[in-house]
Amino acid sequence: MALPVSNSDTAGENAYRRIRHDIIFGRLAPGSRLRLERLKEPYLASVSTLREILFRLSSEGLVVAEGQRGFEVAPVSQQNFREVAAMRDLLEGHALRESFRRGDVDWEGEVVAAHHKLARMERLMLAGEREDPAIWKRYDWEFHHALISACGSAALLAAHAQIFDRYLRYQIIAVIFRGESAMEEHRQLRQHALDRDADSAVNVLKSHIGACVAHTLEHGLLDA
């Protein structure tokens, strides 16, 4: 997930992280043109650095490079959301099985701690509190990442992180919070992790992702 900038990062890396964060959280709207000259001042980066950043984000599916015409924020669509969701289901389901097989007691503690923070945030949201989406989704990311963190593959974790952020972008733009059903699915995932019941966890995950897609399409929150 996109994280806040760090003082230890280079100026270019800070600009990359800020632009990426602003795309995922909708501050840079889908389909909007990314004019290098206009990005220089707010992101404190040169045109050449910005061009490199946008090509990097293009490789992640968050920006579209249009040849001589420049760059734009990747548009959103129902079909693309389905594809991103299917990829997340595939990667996360495989990583869950490996993580459940390899995880130790310390891993279980990380899963429980991450779930505690997410559940607390979800209870506040159910009570009508208006929470910062970035904080809520950070806790959501931390929980799902904790579940798969023992999978033993850095490449799998990196691939999952990229696809999770693309999925997250759709949640921020179109879905937000499904309420008690999502909260219960998270609780079940935590319990299945402690029980090392990978088959049940994968089924819950599939339902969890599928319900988000169905909710989005049902309510017409994305163009076809």
Q: Could you tell me the mean pLDDT?
A: 90
CATH superfamily of the largest domain: GntR ligand-binding domain-like
pLDDT < 50 runs, ≥5 residues: none
Approximately what portion of the residues adopt beta-strand conformation? under 5%
* Shape annotation: globular
CATH topology of the largest domain: Four Helix Bundle (Hemerythrin (Met), subunit A)
Number of strands: 3
The main pleated sheet reads as:
3 strands, antiparallel
SSE ordering = HEHHEEHHHHHH
Q: Which CATH class of the largest domain?
A: Mainly Alpha
* Integer-rounded radius of gyration: 18 Å
For the record, give the distance between the C-alpha atoms at the N and C termini, rounded to a whole number. Answer: 26 Å
What is this entry, summarized?
This protein has helices spanning 11-24, 36-43, 47-59, 78-102, 105-126, 133-148, 154-175, 180-195, 198-218, and strands at residues 33-34, 63-65, 71-73. The chain is mainly alpha-helical and 224 residues long.
Label this structure with key terms.
3 strands, single chain, Arc Repressor Mutant, subunit A, mainly alpha, three-stranded antiparallel beta sheet, 9 helices, globular, 224 residues, 2 domains, Four Helix Bundle (Hemerythrin (Met), subunit A)
Give the topology, please.
Blueprint: H1 11-24, E1 33-34, H2 36-43, H3 47-59, E2 63-65, E3 71-73, H4 78-102, H5 105-126, H6 133-148, H7 154-175, H8 180-195, H9 198-218
Antiparallel strand pairs: 1-3, 2-3
Helix pairs in contact: 1-3, 4-7, 4-9, 5-6, 5-8, 6-7, 8-9
